[in-house]
Design a protein that fits this description.
Layout (H helix, E strand, L loop, with lengths): L2 H26 L4 H18 L14 E4 L5 H11 L4 H4 L30 H14 L6 E6 L6 H12 L5 E7 L8 H4 L5 H7 L3 E6 L3 H9 L10 E6 L22 H21 L1
Parallel strand pairs: 1-2, 2-3, 3-5, 4-5
């Protein structure tokens, strides 16, 4: 498969998974759809292109580790784990039901989930620990941590960032879903992050900013991470659109954790299916 064909296939999977995410949240009558939609391209690129993982053996020795630090957007992770074959349709359909294995934040009871997350600011600290363990055990696996940009207000993030530099964790990749909105307002009004890249450079990280709405740019960035020669941890600032793919949700604060009403659900479904068909016609 050529790179162009693979990118198109990843875009198709992401489009299909956006529809799944919408259906999961609408059926459960709860969830964080805005940040889930903004992070789906990255999740799809990781699980279908980059991560060395095996749905048939989720605890396989030598697998790469992924941590969903922004655990409130778990519906997006569940949707991608379903698409990748870690969890069944039957299990996915139980989300939001009493007694379901699928909780409102990631838990290790779910196949493919490495650690319990959702207390914001903890994911990178856990990732640092996993990356240090890989160094100590002389293992080659990589650790990837997806953080929210609102999460950057937590001091523990920067303690972990300093430790990652101190221990030269070039096997650690942090990804910031930089959609610019958090639960109460824009990130810049709540707690300004800019200049975000310069801050992380000053902490000793190798930093790049990308268009996280562009699948080809995501894949090329993931492919070009220097694990061999660099002695620095890596940060990808993934600039995305909150609510990506559903026009009336894009960059609208209320969709941080809004649940669509029936008419909104039907309109969103129409838009997503049109996008799926458009990508399919180009394949």
């Amino acid at each position: 498969m050529s790179q162009k064909e693979e990118i198109r296939q990843l875009e198709y999977i992401a489009a299909q998974t956006r529809k799944t995410l919408l259906e999961v949240i609408y059926r459960a009558k709860g969830g964080h759809i805005g940040g889930g939609l903004s992070s789906l391209n990255m999740l799809v690129a990781l699980y279908f292109h980059t991560l060395k993982v095996d749905p048939e053996n989720p605890h396989k020795e030598g697998r790469d580790r992924f941590i969903m630090s922004k655990g409130h957007c778990v519906e997006a992770l569940y949707s991608v784990l379903h698409a990748r074959g870690f969890i069944s349709s039957e299990l996915l359909n139980t989300y939001g039901s009493r007694g379901s294995l699928l909780a409102g934040h990631p838990t290790v009871k779910v196949p493919g989930v490495e650690v319990n997350t959702g207390a914001l600011g903890h994911g990178l600290s856990i990732g640092v620990g996993l990356a240090i363990a890989a160094k100590m055990d002389e293992k080659n696996y990589k650790t990837y941590v997806l953080m929210g940009d609102g999460e950057q207000g937590e001091g523990s993030v920067y303690e972990a960032a300093m430790a990652a530099h101190q221990y030269k964790l070039n096997n650690l990749v942090a990804i910031m879903d930089r959609n610019g909105l958090q639960i109460s307002d824009t990130t810049e009004k709540v707690m300004s992050l800019e200049p975000v890249s310069q801050r992380w450079n000053a902490l000793g990280w190798e930093v790049c900013e990308i268009n996280g709405d562009n699948m080809q740019e995501i894949v090329e960035t993931l492919d070009n991470i220097d694990f061999a020669d660099s002695r620095q941890p890596h940060l990808i600032v993934s600039k995305t659109t909150k609510g990506k793919g559903i026009s009336f949700m894009e960059n609208v604060l209320k969709w941080h954790h809004g649940v669509p009403k029936e008419a909104e659900y039907r309109e969103a479904l129409r838009e997503l299916e049109a996008n799926i068909n458009e990508i399919n016609d180009k394949k």
